[in-house]
Amino acid sequence: MIEIEAILDSDGVIRACKAAGHAGAGKAGTDVVCAAVSVLFRTALNVLSGREGIVFKGGAPEKGRLWLETEYNEKGKDFLFAVGEFLIYGFSSVVQEFPDNCKLTIRNISS
Fold first, then answer.
1. How many domains is the chain partitioned into structurally?
2. Pair 56, 6: CB distance under 8 Å
3. DSSP SS3 for 20
4. Tell me: the pLDDT tens digits for 35-54?
5. What is the span of the domain harbouring residue 100?
6. Is the pLDDT score of 29 beyond 90?
7. Which of 13, 16, 47, 93 is 20 to 30 A away from residue 57, measured at CA?
């Protein structure tokens, strides 16, 4: 099971996200659930790279673990909000299609 946690601030902007585990929906290297989560996560990391108004840290320290932490100012707020929406909708789609292999938790915090 891949467990994903997304943390949003009071404005709905993503501040952190982590994914851990293995879906177990297929053989290593061919698991469509793992691939979907990885592509969504890595696309978000790539798209945030060098974006004005957004500072982030993130990576994939080992197989089965991905993480992201963000900070932003007004210049980056709308873009980061959109990236967060992209991630949450994408992860939600994976969970809807593969509920036995992927779980998404969304937490809201004060900014």
1. 1
2. no
3. strand
4. 999 999 999 999 999 899 99
5. 2-108
6. no
7. 93
